[in-house]
Amino acid sequence: MGRTVITARAAATFEPVGRSVAAARAFVRDTLQGWGLADIVDDAVVLTSELVTNAVVHAGTAADVRCLRDGDSGVRVEVVDRYPDRGLPVQDLGHHYGDPDREGGRGLLLCASLADRWGVDYTATDKRVWFRLDLPERPVGTRSAGPVLPDSVLPVTDTRVRVAVVQVDRSGTVSSWNDDARELFGYPAEQVTGKPLTDLAAWPHTPGTGTGVAEALAMSRWEGSYGIRCADGRTIPVYASHLRVRDADGEPSTVCLLVRDHERAVLQSPSRGAASDSAGAAERRERGGTDSFDVFIGSPPPDDLDGLLQRTVERARDTLDGDAAFLLLATDDETELEVRATTGLPAARQRFARVPVEAGSGRYGSARMPSVHEDLSAVPGAVPLLEGTGMRSVVTVPLKVEGRLTGSLGVSAEAPGRYTNEEALRLQFAADRIALAVESARLTELERLRRGSLSFLVEASDLLAGTLDRDQTLALMAQMTVPTLASWCAVYTIAEQQTEPELSYVLHEDEERIDGLKALLAKVPPPDPVPAPGARLWSAPGDAAHSTALRTSLRSLGLDHTGLSGSRSTGGGTGTTLATASAVGGETVVLPLVARNRVIGLLTLGKPSDERFRQEILELAEDLSRRAALALDNARLYSERTAISQSLQRSLLPPELPEVPGVEVEVIYRAAGEGNEVGGDFYDLFPIRDGAYGFAIGDVCGTGPEAAAVTGLARHALRLLAREGLGGPAVLERLNAAILDEGARSRFLTLLYGELWPNPQGGATLKVVCAGHPLPLRLRQNGTVESAAEPQPLLGVLEDLELYEETVSLDPGDVLLCVTDGVTERREGDRMLGDDGLAEVLTTCTGLTAGAVAARIMRAVERFAADAPSDDMAILAMRVPE
Known about the structure:
Elements: E1 8-14, H1 19-34, H2 41-59, E2 63-70, E3 74-81, H3 93-96, H4 106-114, E4 117-122, E5 127-134, E6 164-169, E7 174-177, H5 179-185, H6 189-192, E8 201-202, H7 213-218, E9 221-229, E10 235-246, E11 252-260, H8 278-286, H9 305-319, E12 324-330, E13 336-343, E14 354-356, E15 371-373, E16 393-401, E17 404-413, H10 421-465, H11 470-481, E18 488-493, E19 502-508, H12 514-523, E20 536-537, H13 540-556, H14 574-584, E21 588-595, E22 598-606, H15 615-651, E23 664-670, E24 681-689, E25 692-700, H16 705-723, H17 728-740, E26 749-758, E27 764-771, E28 777-779, E29 785-787, E30 806-810, E31 815-819, H18 821-824, E32 827-828, E33 831-832, H19 834-842, H20 850-864, E34 873-879
Antiparallel strand pairs: 1-2, 2-3, 3-5, 4-5, 6-7, 6-11, 8-9, 9-10, 10-11, 12-13, 12-17, 13-14, 15-16, 16-17, 18-19, 18-22, 20-21, 21-22, 23-34, 24-25, 25-26, 26-27, 27-30, 28-29, 28-31, 31-34, 32-33
């Protein structure tokens, strides 16, 4: 016997609860159908159901279900439980389990009857019950066939049927594109090859709920409806069949067959269990109309709302032989119905469009009872969703759970008089069976969305709170909404003294379309800054995009906007313009950004062509807009405060330093903090009279407005008193009195003040007073460093001060260095630079210019510690050239 080669496998674990049996059945069914083994699905599902029931119900343990495919010969399914002690009396099978009415043992009896081989394996930790089903031989011939139908009822096509064949590699990138695909969608093969299929697919599902296009491409087999965005900006509904294959090298890829949605009969697989003859179908309808609606129960899984709704409308349309079908779900207050799934309707009727429950005339006006309209042209507006679609007859039934309206299911046809009360009863029977599963899946989806919304808002609040920069706040607002909530976003801001919104930031999920979107919005008048809460529709961008696309298309055809013939234009911007129109042609909403009872901006969110927002997304966007408005207002206030602080800081420092003949002077000033507080350090150098200059460097205790007031008082008082001819001690004594006169607002001040007289023969003479300030250091030409003054009391503390001045002579090549305590008190852990560290650095500055000396000192201070400085720093260096 040859060695078994497993070519595919799938496994899942199920908890010991009753609902696990249904989940296990669905797992095996989906797995085998995905492998294309529909012939043995029914037997495998029945056997799996019995064996999993034994494991999770009777044995009370979790169960592992494994599906193993052996090439083209068969499938082995194993059910493993964790209860090896509970044995199976397989030796007495014929005697002990022969009674079919016996309560237990039917699972093994079924295995013996249905499986080609089966068995039980024991280990120390688990028990494995397995069965094998051989694949039936498939001779060449008919696999399935339909009845012979008259030509009048055959599917109608407007042109020859084109089947687009698109091959997609494992990363979702288009690798092959046939001629029919080019004819259907307008793209030549070289334009789309190498691009992700997701760029073209207009997938109807909401991110985070249900199956997305990437997941569908990863499945072994998939069928369903979606849209393809064409080169001219339109979205064509298509019906697709995906099959995952491997090449000779084992590399997986997906072959996608696509036809226009109304031609789906070319690709659509026949429904399992559907009637094969009209007599059988009629007989089942007489028993209660349960023929094709059995598929509603158990497939797809009930927590996949999108898949469940889409499968429902497709089965409903097929069962009643309709041209279109739709399913709407009610809002929480039951005042509106939201379109959640359609088939056979134009793209404009896609998901999340809303219609009121109490709308129009006729029996559909309440949507709470089954209704049949033989001819919609006789009652215009009876079914708002079908207006302009060409549908003439329609049957609608409500979905109710415990008497509460949860939705509406409808099937329509282009011919009048297609439906009677009999079809309404059949559809209502199906709706009653599916309503509970739909409601359960809807509640599961809402819970998932609410949890996701809370996480989103928490993360958004953290990000918005992490910055006080206006531009960064605008960028964060847009980046948080795109693509999570919308396809594109624009933020308008309104300045303090203005009423007209200004476009401040634009973002699109496709970066190549940002410039085109920005140009389009610049041509559109901004939305009105209405403070009313909630999202409101804004049609201007979509209208402008469609108008621009129309004019561009006419120009490309040699026509102007009046339709008259003109010169043919082949400008390269046509494709870009059409792409922009498609990108913003969907629903657009505006949310006000309100802070302190004033509209400070507008948050605009948009969808691509024919797409709409769902209500839960709009509610989430409204919550985000409130948080974003506060963050934007805080950023604006912070920016204004920073600008005021920086302006005040500049006003407390001299605008420029005078040139002192025969003396080099350099100043470096570094303010600590984030720039939104006024520092207490200051410096000054000013002429007193001919040949004499005053200089000062000081530090006011603390920061903020009080410190700034003392700083301004000191700098201006020094200039005024010095120019009155007073000496250094007198100047500082009067300044001390002025500071004390400030009362409770006064701050003590450390100050080094001096007067400088350059000597015409070289050198300079200085008279200095050091009032509580770090002592000035003199660097001689030979490299020695010494203090150039003695410490004296600081200002703003004592009323009676006895200060004196000291004379310092600077020879050619000497440097006088004055700093604030932010330099000497620079710390790294327990280490501090101090006066000695500063003197050591200064000894290395012999022969340098004043500018080089100041730069070296600052560089040494910055390198002393890794952390940013916590105090302002000012350095004043004066040097007599050699």
